[in-house]
Design a protein that fits this description.
Elements: H1 2-11, H2 13-32, H3 40-68
Helix pairs in contact: 1-2, 2-3
Amino acid sequence: MEILTLILLFTFPNLAVLLIMYYLYILFLKKWNDDEEYDERYVRAQKTKRVWWFLGVAFLLSVIGNLIK
């Protein structure tokens, strides 16, 4: 995973940044939703919603970074 990220960093910087941010987000997401009291479908829906929101923000930041260059 890390080697792939490094290769992407030098070829496609914005894609590599998105991949790194997504990987870190998934690591922290496991810590946020360790509560087993919730229904599994609700937790899965919340995770999916958070991941899509996060990727959307990361994509917008990537586009803004391209415009600034």
